[in-house]
User: Fold these one by one.
Assistant:
Number 1:
Amino acid sequence: MIKKVAILANGGDVSGFNAVIRAIVKSAEKHDIECYGFIEGYRGLLKNEYIKLSTSQNSRACGILPKGGSIIGSSTNANVFNYKVEENGEIVYKDLSDKCVQNVKDDGFDCLFILGGDGTQKSARDLSLKGLKVIGVPKTIDNDVACTDITFGYNTAVSVATEALDRLHTTGETHHRIMVLEVMGRYAGWIALESGIAGGADIALIPEIPYDINKAVEKINRRKELGKNFSIVVVAEGAKPKDGEISVAEVRDNGKGVDNTKLGGAGEKVTKELQKLTGMEARCTVLGYTQRGGTPTSFDRVLSTKYGAKAMELAIEGKFNVLTVLKDGKLDCVSLEDVVGENKEIGAVSGNTKESNIRKVTMDDDLIKTARSIGICLGD
Ligand code: F6P
């Protein structure tokens, strides 16, 4: 019997965080289970900072379904197995995971619901090996968590990108320009590909297909021959040329075992090359954090609610150390061990490493086939 649980939201925020929190709290209330939220993800777990969550009138978790962000905050890049601390004026990295485990045990939490992407779920699995009972919920706009068809937050990001493409269409058409939109997604091209189809892009460049810029030029020129004096290009931030590198805006120092690479610049690079090679005016828009902020779509509200309710159901059944997933439209769960794949080493988290088990676009995906069928140029 579980009596007291806590939620932890970690990593970059997405629309839908609060919808998951609300669903967990509501399901807990139905079973007279006390529910708390750690403040700012793993950082709060380490500092043992948490608040009571309730959906009763004027309580913290009341009225949060359409609200963006996270009512319990979230920390990006807090790896408690390799935590950045200052000691005697020097930066050192320490394994503080035992303190987290102790906090949970001392305060009698029967289960920890961990909302996050691949890095966060890797830490969840590592904490489970230290004896914590955890249940993961897959979050990220990038849609790159292994073992699930979809993460919450992704659909909202695609909707925002689609609306941006619609808006770029009208201005591009008016001024006979090439309009480039850089979208997020890290090392996966899901947002670019899906919004590219939804927003009628002519060219979509994704990390999984290193591009030949000449193929994009050919597509634009063919359109010109047909009297179409504008083109719409969506570029994933992780897209790279066939014989080149990924575009990096900054390399940070947020701790070991976390992804310290901040991507950026892919859209601008493509824009400059297309302008030079086609002789047309080209403009770049970087969509950035609008993809993560604000109210979730109805799809994400429902998905988040399903995930939250399923997570509580699993806790009541005593099924721990799993991730809630959606497979072929059905809610299910998989072991966190499967989610981390070959990324077995405790403390190692995320990033573009060969071990990190992220779900990228595969060439047999229906989105790829559909894009090709209707003539969207994928840069190859
Ligand atoms: O993983 C989500 C994401 O929004 C990526 O799409 C993007 O590359 C990254 O986070 C940005 O991270 P930060 O919030 O640290 O700038």
Note: The mean pLDDT is 96.
Number 2:
Amino acid sequence: MEKYLTKTPEETKKLASQVAQKLKIGDVVLLKGDLGAGKTTFIQGLAQGLEVPEDYYVSSPTFALINQYPGRITLFHVDLYRLEAGEVEDLGLEDLLEEGILAIEWAERLPYSLPHSLLVEILVSSPTERQITIKTLKGESNDL
Ligand code: ADP
Ligand code: MG
């Protein structure tokens, strides 16, 4: 488990871009944290680290449900905030793991576990400070 403190959104993105250097196809990044904590900001940094072209705007998927950004490795992005368990199951997230890296906002709403996961928890400690904890999970997201 590693703990970080960031003082700007740019620092959060830089940290995420460093994390991205260690990721490979089939890896899952589970993000937890309140609304406005910085989950989407962290994923913007993952995209930078994976060399997704700058003209791709990384924001939470809404109608599309799954966003896909072409980088050195493809990055898939889902946000489970508004989804019911049944809808999450219909997304077929496991299938994406053969093709790229998957980043999941509101991972606590995932009704099943995924392998090769990294858990990123973001706590708001001031308007501009975030405590970011990164843990490697042994395959199970249910035992968080
Ligand atoms: P979430 O996806 O968790 O709802 P967002 O990434 O969309 O959160 O929003 C985070 C907000 O917090 C942004 O407006 C961002 O500018 C702001 N912010 C301020 N300080 C930080 C920081 N240190 N790290 C990340 N975001 C920060
Ligand atoms: Mg978000």
Note: Helices lie at 9-20, 39-49, 85-90, 93-96.
